[in-house]
Each structure stands twice: as structure tokens, then as C-alpha cells.
Amino acid sequence: MNMIRMASQAKKAALRLAAVKPDVKNRAIAGIARSLEESARDIEAANRLDLERARQENLAAPLLKRLRFDEAKIAEACMGLRSLEALEDPVGRTLRAVELDQGLELFQVTCPIGVIGVIFESRPDALVQISSLCLKSGNSVLLKGGSEAAETNRILAGIIAAASRDAGIPDGWLGLLETRENVNEILGLDDFIDLIVPRGSNAFVRHIMENTNIPVLGHADGICHVYVDRDADLDQAVAITVDSKCQYVAVCNAVETLLVHRGVADTFLPKVRQALEDRGVEIRGCERTRQVIDVSPASDKDWRTEYLDLILSIRVVDGLDQAVNHINRYGSGHTDVIVTRDRKRGLRFMDGVDSADVFLNCSSRFSDGFRYGLGAEVGISTNKIHARGPVGLEGLVIYQWRLFGDGHVVADYAGDGARPFTHRDMGKEGHSGIT
Questions:
Q1: Are 50 and 59 in contact (CB under 8 A)?
Q2: Nearest-5° Cα angle at 147, 202 to 36
Q3: Cα–Cα dist 163/194, whole Å
Q4: 214 near 11, Cβ under 8 Å?
């Protein structure tokens, strides 16, 4: 389909979708889950075609793992859909209600953004998450997944579009882009598209930002850290490090660099080395690390690298301040962890690290929209405007100001004898008049 036509249809659908009632959207989400379950064999067959082609093209093992969409992944996607269905609708919520004067009432009310373009990696489950989040938040979406997942994405988009149409959702709210040329085309469609969410490499995200006038929300690399402080429970630190690195290695919230306070390095490094190597992790260390354990040398490039693989770089630091400085210099502002029994030092770390997600005594892998209770996510944002961290339903709505009057005019509030504003906070008292 012509890109302008697809984007125009999405824009028209978005205007109608913004007014669709929550029960209709929830019915559509439930219908999508049922349709995915009923079509599981067809989905797996399409996915096998993608996997076979990817193997022939020697796709890296971590990317093959992302590409797989088998029975377990389908079941997980459907569980996510049902969790999303149960969440409160994010549209039409009153954030603020103020009486400007008697009979002149101002409401700040959440509303959809409009048309969202999402460019994502070869993860078919991401297509399900992103499209359903956009649907629940009342947004149209144009999706471009990795070419490796072309067959799987095609069948999933078809199932989702059909199930949502059957439930009463406006046709055209979901569009699937299939070529790189499509990506370049949408960058110029600022008359139709309100937000672009790119998921990919630093260079790719930068390319998107530099070649469009459309607002861009997203993150580039996921260079995440675990810092083991001088007061850490070392057994806990080992468990957190292993989970952060190994629980699912090919994701943006997996840890890539481990920082270790010099006061615990001699005891901790042998422990964590054994645990990591038992799981097949290749360790690269700074000179101080290599004085304690026999590992490959780490270079300055390692501190800047998102491996997405069973590789971890380790640096011994003099203290908390040096750890914070390292993270702020080399990190990507995604997710960073401190392990310490001293809560005050944990808070110092959180105050000092300039990242979207900062954790105390828990795995970096918790940085996820579903785990946060946001209803999955369209991506992780390291931006400092509108949405930051996992972008779920709340990050897919904006707001509008609604003013209700009764013949009020500004002239009455200007000049000599101007009528004063009351600016009275109505709280919940004024909320019922909005919905």
C-alpha cells in the first residue's frame, strides 16, 4: 500500500479511536488473545520460515533467540494481553480540576497522542505488545519490524487487525511497513504521524532523530551496570549479577558492566567469576580486576559496548563516587543497579546516576513495562521529556485542557474593575462532569 495512503488512513482511524469506549477496546484486546491462541499453529509455521531463513543467513544466536515465537511465547503474549485488558483505561482521566470563577471550570484530561510509528527489532512478541498498548491507549500505529521476522509479523498483524475490526475498532488503525524504504518515507510524514519510537542501535536512533521533524521517543544502547558497594551482601550481589547478565542475555536491560568496590574485590571477584563462567559468560576485566582473577583484558571500548551476549566487563573502583562517574560517562541512561546494605549509600547512588531506572539490591532485568505493571511497553525511553523508562500506557497518552463556561468573556477579567479569578482546586468534586 502507498505510504501516504496508509498514514492517512491511520490518522483518520486515530480520530475515531480516541472516542472509542473502554469496553470496546477491552473486547478487542480479549478477541486478539483468543485469535492468537486459535491461530497458534499458523503463527508457528510462519515463524519457522523466518527462523530457517535467518539460519541460512547466519543470524547471530542472540538474535535467533529473539526471533523465535513458539507456543510458549504465544502463551506469554496472550497472558500479557489479558493483563493489559484488566488495567484501567488511560484515556479520559482528569489530572486536574480548577474553578477559574463561578461557572468557569478548567479540566486537564488525558487523551491519545494520535498516530505512532514504531520501528522495532526482530521480536514478534514486540509487535503484539506494541500494537495492543497503542490500541488500549487509543492510538493508531504504523509498525516496522525487522525483516528477519517478515512472515511472523505479517500473520500477527493480520490477526490483530481482523480481531480488532470484529470488536468494533475503526479499520486502518494498524499498518504494517515491510521495507527499509517505508522507514525513510514515514520520516517525512509529519502531517500524519505524531510520534516515532525507534528501537535499535545508537547509530540507527541517531539517524532517525536527524532525518525527521516528527518527535522521537526512545533509547539507543542499553549499557547497564551493577555496582557492588563496600557494604554489599556478597552472596546477594552474585545472584543479582548473574540474573542481570544471564536471565535473558539479548535484551537492553541486561547488565554489560560490573563495577566492584576495591574493599570487596578480593573476596567477591572469585565468587562472581565462578558463577558467571558456570553459565558460559566470557569476562573481560580492568588491570585491577586481572590482579585478582585471571580474565581477558578490558579496553575502553568495552565500557561503551552493549554486548547483547554472554560477555561481561568488570572494573574495580575506589568507591561509590567513582562508580557513579563511570556510569554517567559510559552508560546509556537506561538501567543501573547498586548492591549495598547501606540504604543511605543506595540513595546517594540513585541521586547521582543520571539514568531512567536506578535500582537498589535487585536485578536490572526488572526494568520492564510488564513487570512495572504498565501493561508491557512500546520501548524504553532515556528521554527527559514526556515519558522516561519503560513506556507503557501512561507514556502513550498526552492531555488536553477543557474549559467549561457559561457565556464568560475575557473582557470581564481585564482593565479597571476586573473580576478576580478564584483558581479553586475542585479535586474530585469536579471530576464527574468530564466523563
A1: no
A2: 110
A3: 25
A4: no
Kindly calculate the radius of gyration of the chain based on its CA atoms and give it in whole angstroms. Answer: 25
- The per-residue pLDDT of the chain, averaged, comes to 93
339 vs 361: CA distance, rounded Å: 5
- As a whole number of angstroms, the distance between CA 40 and CA 71 comes to 7
Contact between 114 and 194 under an 8 Å Cβ cutoff? The reply is yes
Q: How many CB atoms lie within 10 A of CB 121?
A: 19
Summarize pLDDT for 389-416 with one digit per residue, the tens: 888 888 899 999 999 999 999 999 999 9
Give the chain's domains with CATH numbers: 3-216 (3.40.605.10), 224-366 (3.40.309.10)
Ordered strands of the 335-339 beta sheet: 296-297, 282-285, 311-317, 255-261, 224-228, 335-339, 357-360
Q: Are 93 and 109 a contacting pair, CB within 8 Å?
A: yes
Residue 88, CA distances (Å) to 19, 52, 94, 375 in order: 16, 40, 13, 10
Q: Which phi and psi angles does 125 have, rounded to 5°?
A: -65, -25
Residue pair 190/7 in contact (Cβ under 8 Å)? The answer is: no
| Nearest partner of 115 among 133, 142, 145, judged by Cα | 142
Answering whether pTM is above 0.90, one says no
Count other C-beta atoms under 10 Å from residue 423's C-beta: 10
Q: What DSSP string describes 131-185? A: HHHHHHTT-EEEEE--GGGHHHHHHHHHHHHHHHHHTTPPTTSEEEE-SHHHHHH
Coil, strand or helix at 387: coil
Half-sphere exposure of residue 138, counting CA atoms within 13 Å on the CB side? 23
Question: pLDDT digit string (tens) for 102-137?
Answer: 999 999 999 999 999 999 878 899 999 999 999 999
| Closest listed residue to residue 24, CA positions, set 138, 108, 117 | 138
228: helix, coil or strand?
Answer: strand
Q: Three cell numbers at 99?
A: 474553578
| Residues, the chain | 435
**Beta carbons within 8 Å of 341's beta carbon, 6+ residues apart:** 231, 232, 233
Rounded distance between C-alpha atoms, residue 257 and residue 260, angstroms? 10
